[in-house]
């Protein structure tokens, strides 16, 4: 979604890069729908997170879990509803706890929880007219908030000062974070310059890599990012090169290593034990083992959503239990359960409870 037009019309884009699906069975267990096979079976609880009446979902985007297993959900929101919060918190049973983050309304996007010396913080990024990223406490107090890194030399004049929606390779539209062992972090400018920026532990800009291109170290919408620390693997950066329908592996310094193909607009990443989790906007969740072999594709509805039925995103009557529409982010909790946020206007957060 490198332009507003492509964001609205991405379902018409080519799906040739999407690998032929391996269909997984759906079954009932004590009247609860179960998807998956073998050790990768999950009970499906759609709309697990419910908002109080005074709030509404305005396109759910990303999710994160803290050490108490509370779930944080950020939605995009609407620019004209400036007093409506963009971040909602739910306890492990799905009960609403609190809401905050109205400063990100209309541009809410990425959210991650990070443990720093025994204390947890939220890292949030927002695109559209917000064009910012911030470090918050778990209750929403701002530690710092930052804007376009002008020292990088890739942004238009005053891009760090003007809060106006503007798409282009010289615009700043940050999407997601990955955290480094030295306390620093990587930030993807997934809708803007298509660079990945490196920051130190104090949030100061250090360097960049990537930029626009067709792969092998360059990107077309580097939307999600992760540090792969799974057991038995050397630490690597993984970037969801979404419009190229691939995952790219790079060194921690941004040097290209390899490309994994066969995805449909991969959006973000998470890991648990030896599994790598890949939500794909083309209607499925993919799990990879430690060898990066596909071991499960959950809730798959690629053909119907991308080719056969119009306006599935905007019409919940066309949604099928156990199937996904547009997974935009997903994360594990400590028990290996999966939470999925979908890019649908009404918002939807699904819990996949691990039973395999």
Describe this structure in words.
This protein has 356 residues and is mainly beta. The protein has one domain (4-354): 6 Propeller (Neuraminidase). It is built from two helices and 26 strands. A six-stranded antiparallel beta sheet has the order 1-2-3-26-25-24, with no helix packed on it. It is globular. The model is unreliable at 1-25 (pLDDT under 50).
Features:
356 residues; mainly beta; 4-stranded antiparallel β-sheet; 26 strands; 40% strand
In short:
The chain is mainly beta. It has two helices and 26 strands.
- Helix/strand-derived class? mainly beta
Shape type: globular
What is the CATH superfamily classification? TolB, C-terminal domain
N/C terminus separation: 35 Å
Number of strands: 26
Q: Note poorly predicted spans.
A: 1-25
- Known CATH architecture: 6 Propeller
Order of helices and strands: HEEEEEEEEEEEEEEEEEEEEEEEHEEE
Amount of beta strand: 35-45%
Quaternary structure classification: single chain
Please summarize the sheet with the most strands.
6 strands, antiparallel
Strands side by side in the biggest sheet: 1-2-3-26-25-24
What is the percent of helical residues? under 10%
Helix count equals 2
Quick check: average pLDDT? 92
Count of separate structural domains: 1
User: What is the rounded Rg?
Assistant: 19 Å
CATH topology annotation: Neuraminidase
Topology:
Elements: H1 4-8, E1 26-29, E2 32-37, E3 40-45, E4 60-65, E5 71-75, E6 87-90, E7 96-100, E8 108-116, E9 119-126, E10 132-136, E11 142-146, E12 176-179, E13 185-188, E14 195-199, E15 205-210, E16 222-228, E17 236-241, E18 246-250, E19 256-261, E20 270-272, E21 275-280, E22 284-288, E23 294-298, H2 302-308, E24 327-332, E25 338-342, E26 348-354
């Amino acid at each position: 979604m490198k332009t507003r037009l492509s964001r609205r019309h991405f379902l018409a884009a080519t799906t040739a890069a999407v690998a032929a699906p391996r269909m997984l069975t759906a079954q009932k267990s004590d009247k609860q729908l179960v998807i998956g096979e073998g050790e990768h079976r999950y009970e499906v609880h759609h709309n697990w997170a419910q908002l109080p009446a005074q709030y509404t979902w305005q396109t759910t985007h990303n999710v994160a879990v803290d050490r108490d297993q509370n779930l944080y959900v950020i939605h995009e929101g609407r620019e004209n509803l400036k007093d409506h919060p963009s971040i909602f918190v739910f306890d492990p049973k799905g009960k609403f706890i609190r809401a905050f983050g109205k400063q990100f309304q209309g541009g809410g996007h990425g959210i991650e929880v990070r443990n720093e010396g025994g204390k947890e913080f939220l890292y949030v990024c927002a695109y559209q007219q917000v064009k910012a990223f911030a470090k918050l406490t778990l209750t929403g107090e701002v530690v710092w908030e930052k804007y376009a890194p002008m020292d990088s030399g890739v942004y238009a004049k005053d891009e760090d000062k003007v809060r106006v929606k503007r798409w282009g390779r010289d615009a700043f539209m940050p999407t997601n974070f990955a955290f480094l062992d030295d306390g620093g972090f990587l930030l993807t400018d997934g809708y803007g310059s298509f660079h990945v920026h490196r920051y130190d532990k104090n949030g100061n800009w250090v360097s960049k890599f990537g930029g626009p291109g067709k792969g092998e170290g360059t990107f077309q919408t580097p939307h999600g990012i992760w540090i792969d620390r799974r057991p038995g693997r050397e630490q690597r950066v993984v970037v969801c090169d979404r419009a190229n329908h691939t995952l790219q592996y790079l060194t921690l310094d941004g040097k290209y290593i390899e490309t994994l193909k066969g995805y449909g607009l991969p959006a973000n990443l998470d890991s648990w034990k030896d599994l790598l989790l890949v939500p794909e906007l083309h209607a499925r969740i993919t799990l990879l083992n430690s060898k990066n072999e596909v071991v499960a594709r959950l809730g798959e509805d690629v053909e119907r959503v991308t080719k056969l039925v119009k306006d599935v995103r905007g019409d919940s009557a066309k949604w099928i239990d156990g199937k996904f529409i547009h997974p935009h982010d997903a994360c594990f909790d400590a028990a290996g359960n999966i939470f999925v946020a979908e890019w649908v206007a009404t918002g939807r957060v699904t819990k996949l409870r691990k039973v395999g």
